[in-house]
């Protein structure tokens, strides 16, 4: 079975994890947590990084820190992984779902702009939704598949409409826009280290920020808001959202290999683009010249999506459709969906991700492309 994007544990993982076990430093404190945080901040070019138990919990904490609560609305793309929306819902806020750009598969910034101009008002530097009178404090771009939208435009719109930017950059470790790392543009950004991500700790996440006070509060909130080093004194409702040292040890070993992983992802996408060029109507995600993506998960667009999915999966080459658009899920069907011809559904109906584990061989890549080509004969 060729996994879609399997973990690559070819470095110092075993050595560092063994060290944790032999020394007993397996849990919530230990040098690997600090080291992993330092490496992540340095890599992303932010001043601070705070490790969390998952990307989802990182997003939840960011929203809490930004003061999002009941009666607020948060702008997010309609095509994303469920975790973005779950984090918004945990705070009691409701999402404003923005349709998808048909070419780069990120939030459509033209639709966003029209919505902000026509349907919001600014009062005392706060953005309100005209129809419901609800506050819209946050916009949450998602760097879908490690691609990044036109951040200049997004940041300008956010500024003009008094929106704070929190980036769901969980897929963008190693992706840059105009030389700046994904997750370092907003007030806060996030990473995920789930098993299928570009690096993994089994499960885990990270909060990125340049704001010292926010970083301290993030650490505090993710560790049960304990306010005294000795007494069990807690000064607010906290969360047990910390990353354990064993997982962080894996993270450090994975970070050491990240440049190699990204180099391999780039070879994989180059191979696919070359081999599948001119085959049927196959298209790849459009990436602007301003973006250097990590190519975490090569994904193709074709009218024969269902046939290609079946052909590959039947031959044990794990391939997956795109996420079901959020507005099509029962939990969000009553939330606001701002769209133009429902491009999200169009993208969803045509896209599929193809095998791209960093350890995949060129021979296996060739088997994948041959199988895809058969569908178009
Ligand atoms: C992976 C991912 C997350 C976070 O996932 P966890 O499994 O909780 O680490 C959030 N948003 C997106 C877009 C993701 O792909």
Structure annotation, total helices: 11
Number of strands: 17
Determine the structural class based on helices, strands and strand pairing: alpha/beta
Rounded to the nearest angstrom, the distance between the terminal CA atoms is: 24 Å
Bound molecules: pyridoxal-5'-phosphate
What's the structural blueprint in terms of helices and strands?
Elements (H helix, E strand, L loop, with lengths): L12 H11 L7 H14 L3 E5 L2 H11 L6 E6 L4 H9 L3 E5 L10 H11 E4 L2 E4 L5 E5 L11 H10 L3 E4 L8 E2 L2 E2 L6 E5 L12 E5 L2 H11 L22 H31 L7 E2 L6 E2 L6 E3 L3 H10 L5 E2 L14 E3 L4 H8 E3 L8 H14 L2
Helix pairs in contact: 1-8, 2-8, 3-4, 8-11, 9-11
Short summary:
The chain has 377 residues and is of the alpha/beta class.
Give a structural overview.
- The chain is an alpha/beta fold and 377 residues long.
- It has two domains: 13-255, Type I PLP-dependent aspartate aminotransferase-like (Major domain) (Aspartate Aminotransferase, domain 2, 3-Layer(aba) Sandwich), CATH 3.40.640.10; 257-376, Aspartate Aminotransferase, domain 1.
- Helices cover 37% and strands 16% of the residues.
- Strand 2, helix 4 (82-90) and strand 3 form a beta-alpha-beta unit.
- The longest helix has 31 residues, at 245-275.
- 50% of the residues are buried.
- The structure holds pyridoxal-5'-phosphate (PLP).
- Pyridoxal-5'-phosphate binds next to helix 3 and helix 4.
């Amino acid at each position: 079975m060729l996994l879609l994007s399997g973990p690559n544990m070819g470095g110092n993982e075993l050595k560092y994890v063994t060290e944790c076990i032999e020394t007993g430093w397996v849990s919530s404190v230990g040098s690997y947590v600090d080291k992993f945080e330092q490496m992540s901040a340095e890599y992303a070019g932010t001043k601070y990084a705070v490790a969390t138990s998952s990307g989802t919990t990182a997003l939840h904490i960011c929203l809490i820190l930004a003061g999002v609560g009941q009666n607020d609305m948060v702008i997010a793309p309609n095509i994303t992984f469920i975790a973005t929306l779950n984090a918004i819902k945990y705070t009691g806020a409701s999402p404003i779902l923005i349709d998808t750009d048909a070419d780069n598969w990120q939030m459509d910034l033209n639709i966003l702009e029209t919505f902000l101009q026509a349907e919001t008002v600014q009062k005392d530097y706060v953005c309100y939704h005209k129809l419901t009178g609800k506050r819209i404090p946050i916009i949450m771009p998602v760097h879908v598949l490690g691609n990044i939208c036109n951040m200049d435009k997004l940041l300008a719109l956010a500024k003009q409409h008094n929106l704070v930017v929190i980036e769901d950059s969980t897929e963008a470790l190693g992706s840059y826009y105009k030389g700046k790392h994904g997750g370092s543009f907003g007030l806060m950004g996030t990473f995920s280290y789930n098993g299928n991500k570009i690096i993994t700790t089994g499960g885990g996440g990270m909060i990125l920020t340049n704001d010292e006070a926010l970083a301290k509060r993030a650490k505090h909130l993710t560790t049960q808001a304990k306010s005294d080093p000795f007494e069990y004194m807690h000064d607010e409702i906290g969360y047990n959202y910390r990353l354990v040292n064993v997982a962080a040890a894996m993270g450090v070993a994975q970070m050491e290999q990240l440049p190699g992983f990204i180099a391999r992802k780039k070879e994989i996408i180059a191979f696919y683009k070359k081999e599948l060029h001119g085959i049927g109507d196959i298209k790849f995600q459009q990436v602007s010249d301003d973006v250097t993506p990590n190519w975490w998960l090569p994904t193709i667009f074709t009218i024969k999506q269902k046939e290609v999915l079946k052909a590959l999966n039947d031959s044990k080459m794990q391939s997956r459709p795109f996420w079901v658009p959020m507005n099509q899920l029962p939990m969000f069907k009553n939330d606001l969906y701002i769209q133009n011809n429902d491009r999200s559904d169009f993208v969803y109906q045509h896209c599929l991700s193809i095998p791209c584990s960093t350890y995949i061989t060129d021979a296996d890549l060739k088997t994948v492309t041959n199988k895809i080509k058969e569908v178009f004969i």
